[in-house]
Design a protein that fits this description.
Shape: globular
Helix content: 55-70%
Strand content: 5-15%
Order of helices and strands: HHEHHEEHH
Amino acid sequence: MGNGDWHASDPRVDALVYELIGAVADKWTMLLLETLDEQGEMRFTQISRAIPGISQKMLTQTLRRMERDGFVTRTVHAVVPPRVDYRLTPLGESLGEAFCGVWHWAEANLDAVAKAREGFDGISSPP
């Protein structure tokens, strides 16, 4: 990757990588991947409670996009009141594994990033 030759030989692969980075790099998708990976199958309301700050609209949009991309399955149960469960697919699990390195990196480098920010903010702050 360091030699500048990071593009795939198939332009469709490049297109998919760009799309996935755009979709997965948003915080809600990352948090949904982590939550569903840790908790397994969950109801919509359980997911909503497990991810602080996510609106019902954003949760719905993110889950629909993840379902379209094959990352989650949505199971509707014919009961009253309606019950809908979400679960990661094997594809979603593998994507979560690929991105879990971000959490490991953040955990290992938390103090270094905080120190760098403090140093920068101290230099950049007007007197």
